[in-house]
Every structure is written in structure tokens, then in C-alpha cells.
Amino acid sequence: MKNYFFFLVCLLLIIGSCADNGDTDIGTTTYDVDPTFEPYVQEFIAEGAKRGHNIDFSDTGLRIEFSETALEGASGLCYLGEHHIIINKENWFRFSERFRSFLLFHELGHCELDRRHRNEQFSDLTWKSILRGSPLTGIQDRFPVSFFGFRKDYYIDELFDPNTPDPEWSKVQFDYNESLNRKNITTKENINRLNERYTTPLNQYELEADFTLLTAANTRTRVEWGASGLSYYMYIIPGWGYYVGVTLDNLDNDIFYSNNTTLFNDKPIEKITIRQQADVTQIFINEQFIFHLDALPALDYYQLEATTGDAFDTSFDIERFELNELE
Fold first, then answer.
1. Is the separation of the CB atoms in 292 and 169 below 8 Å?
2. FRET pair for 110, CA 20 to 30 Å: which of 7, 56, 191, 208?
């Protein structure tokens, strides 16, 4: 079990605190980018070119460097008008590639595109812009930017054009359909932990579990599925909410959050369904659709378990689990 909750919450708060400082023009066209950041700058230039932006920094210069000290709670700072970005070195080397790309695009959005923070959200509370940031209100700092998979193109579109229409993925709903044609692969009942390998390729499948959620303050429940190089997860934290995300570089990357753990069809969370069908992975809680992601290329393991503190909790009751192939 990957116990990254505290670490990931810290990352979420840090990344969400990217700030803007200053508003003076130093009048230089020097290009001085630490080689660590050069691939991300080139990616930014290439993505801008696809969208009609000719960016080469010859007119403004660009300076990106590491900072050895904390940046007022942020992982990166853009000095507006100066084309100068500093990145917290300690945080950088704890981030996955997805976080690094997100951070550089966010700061370049400030420094090159002169964008400010935009804190609007879609109806499912995913963010409308990669430029979400301080000031955030209430529990907004818990919500990550879904900068991954098929959503990534929209966020880059919006970065270069704030008038980009709302994407179709922000409006999609899937129905829980009990009449699907299912071929049962595995059924288990009344167990306290699942940690299984499945090596026969399945392109269309359904994982479904009924269980009694542990609700004590120091318990955590996690479902994870996928392959060794790429997997998805849902992490449920009593009194806090749940995250959906992707594990990359052996780090959890949260891409969706909800603070709802008690009211799904007027019941607490007691059933989770993961369905991969028609090139989409769909997630349901209590037969209610909550989120969808890119289809995984393979399914070779799945797990469902709960911990109390750092130990597996043997009182966790998985009443029924099924792996079905969808026909």
C-alpha cells in the first residue's frame, strides 16, 4: 500500500500556491534557463506554435533558475514583467513529470502570456484553468488540476486562449447499467483485503466491490488497479473526502477530489465500480457516476484494502468482489 496521503496533500497545497511577485520590467533579452527546465520550455514553445503563438523569447529574454530557499509556500514564482521564474529545488526533485510540466506551464503562463490566476470551476468542481491558484477559499486548495490524459489538451488550449469553450469531458455522464453482458472471471466474498494479480489481457472489464467503509479518523481505504507502469487509484479519507488519481514515477498524482463520503444515493460509500469500456475508464460510487479517465492499456493487478495508522486493518469487510469481462 502506498501511504502518500500527507505528502500529496502538501504537494497540492504547495503547487496551488504558485504566486506572482513584482511588476517591474528589467529590460533584458538574456536567455538563461537552467538545463533542467529546457525541455519544458521547448514543450511550451511547441504547444504555443500549434495554437498560433510564435514564442522564442528573443524579444523578452527568459531566466529560470532554482532557489535553495522556500518561496513563501510556493514551488515556483514568476516575477511579472521580468520573464524571471524561480523554482524551489527541494520540491522539484520530489515531483513527478506531470507535476513538473504543470508547474512550468503555470509559471510560463504568468511570465510569457501575462495571465493571472483563474479560479473558476466546472459543475463537477474540476478547474477551468491550469492557472488556478491563490487566493483560494474554503476547501478549494484540496482540488487538484486534472492536467492528465485527454484533459491535458484542453488545459493547454485554455492557457493560450482564455476564451476556449468548455470541453465535452466536463459535461459527460455515464449510466450505471445492470443489464451489461458480463463474463465472470473472479468472485470473492467476506475477505478483509484484495491484492491480486491478473495476467490475461482484458480490454473491457468491470471491477466491483461491496464493502463496509471504515470511518474512524485514522483509517484510509484505497482501491488501485492497472499495470506496474501505470495505474489508477481512489483514496478515501474519513472526514476529508476522496481522491482519484494516477500513479506515475511511483508517486500518486491526484487529479480529482470530492469532499463527499457520506451521501451517495442516501447511503455512505459502500460500493465502488470501475468499468473500462469503449476506450474510457468510468468510476461509480453506489452506482452513481463520479469521474472518467483514459482507458488503461493493461490490467494486471488490483487491490482494495484499508489501513489504520500504518497497519492493514483486518476488520475491513469486503462483502463481495467481482472481476468481470464485458462482452
1. yes
2. 7
What do you get for the CA distance between the two ends of the chain, in Å? Answer: 31
| Residue 248 covered by a domain | yes
Give the span between the Cα atoms of 87 and 99, in whole angstroms: 12
In a domain, 177, yes or no: no
Which domain range does residue 308 map to? 182-326
Which H/E stretch holds residue 106?
helix 97-111
Query: Which run of H or of E encompasses 103?
Result: helix 97-111
DSSP lists the bridge partners of residue 85 as 64, 78
Q: What is the pLDDT along the chain (327 residues), one digit of tens a residue?
A: 443 333 333 344 344 333 444 333 444 679 999 999 999 999 999 999 999 999 999 989 999 999 987 777 789 999 988 999 999 999 999 999 999 999 999 999 999 999 999 999 999 899 999 999 989 999 999 999 999 999 999 999 999 999 999 999 999 999 998 889 999 999 999 999 999 988 787 889 999 999 999 999 899 999 999 987 889 999 999 989 999 999 987 889 999 999 987 778 788 899 999 999 989 999 999 999 999 999 999 898 999 999 999 999 999 999 999 999 998
Residues 289 and 141 in one domain: no
DSSP for 244-273 reads EEEEETTEEEEEEEE--SS-BTTB-S-EEE
Judge whether 97 lies within some domain. Answer: yes
Q: Are residues 10 and 141 in the same domain?
A: yes
Residues 133 and 268 in one domain: no
Burial class (CB in 10 A: 0-12, 13-18, 19+), 266: exposed
DSSP string, 206-247: EEEEEEE---STTEEEEEEEEETTEEEEEEEETTTEEEEEEE
If asked whether residues 90 and 160 sit together in one domain, one would say yes
The reply to whether 47 and 162 lie within a common domain is yes
